[in-house]
Amino acid sequence: MWRVVRRCLRHDRPGPYQIQAAINAVHSDAPTAGDTDWGQALQLYDQLLAVAPSPVVALNRAVALAEVAGPAAALAVVDRLDLDGYHVFHAIRADLLRRLGRDEEARRAYDAAIARTDNAAERAFLRRRATVG
Predict the structure, then answer these.
(1) 15: left (phi > 0), else alpha (psi -120 to 50), else beta?
(2) For the CA atoms of the chain, what is the radius of gyration?
(3) pTM of the predicted structure, to 2 decimals
(4) I need a surface site. Which of 42, 53, 68, 75 has the fewest CB within 10 A?
(5) Which residues of 64-80 are buried (b: 16+ CB within 10 A; e: fewer)?
(6) Does residue 77 sit in the same domain as residue 93?
(7) Can you say whether residue 68 is alpha, beta or left, with left for phi > 0 and alpha for psi between -120 and 50 degrees?
(8) What's the domain range around 113?
């Protein structure tokens, strides 16, 4: 996968799809989430945010930021986003709050995520996460 991504990036004018492919390659290269090169992922998200700014890209960037700079730095970014109707926003926010030991706020954020998804598997996953403290 990296061979194709590198060829696209060599044009020195990568678009959002090439950057997204590079982000995917960073994740694909890692056998586990813990092995992900989060610094590289964060740099790629910075590029993606520059060429295709959106609240969802900023939210995804915050996930990488949490791994590089910690959950408090990421939560500061997440709390500035206007994505109240998006269940993933609340799920990410809940995870960051949980990692910071703010369990009651995390439970409320998990409840908000659960209320905003129609997917039964996602609801079950979020309910399990909400009970892990």
Answers:
(1) beta
(2) 16
(3) 0.88
(4) 53
(5) bbbbeeebeebbebbee
(6) yes
(7) alpha
(8) 55-133
Answer left, alpha or beta for residue 123, where phi above 0 means left and psi between -120 and 50 means alpha: alpha
Torsion-angle region of 14 (φ positive above 0: left; ψ -120 to 50: alpha; else: beta): beta
Q: Say if residue 83 is in the same domain as residue 37.
A: no
Distance, CA of 121 to CA of 114 (rounded, Å) = 10
Alpha helices (runs of H) in the chain, residue ranges in sequence order: 2-9, 16-29, 38-51, 55-69, 71-78, 87-99, 103-115, 120-131
**Same domain assignment for residues 62 and 48:** no
- d(C-alpha 65, C-alpha 133), whole Å: 22
64 & 128 share domain: yes
Residues 118 and 81 in one domain: yes
Mean pLDDT, 10 residues at a time, over the chain (133 residues)? 56 84 94 94 96 98 98 98 98 98 97 97 95 72
Element (H, E) at 1: none
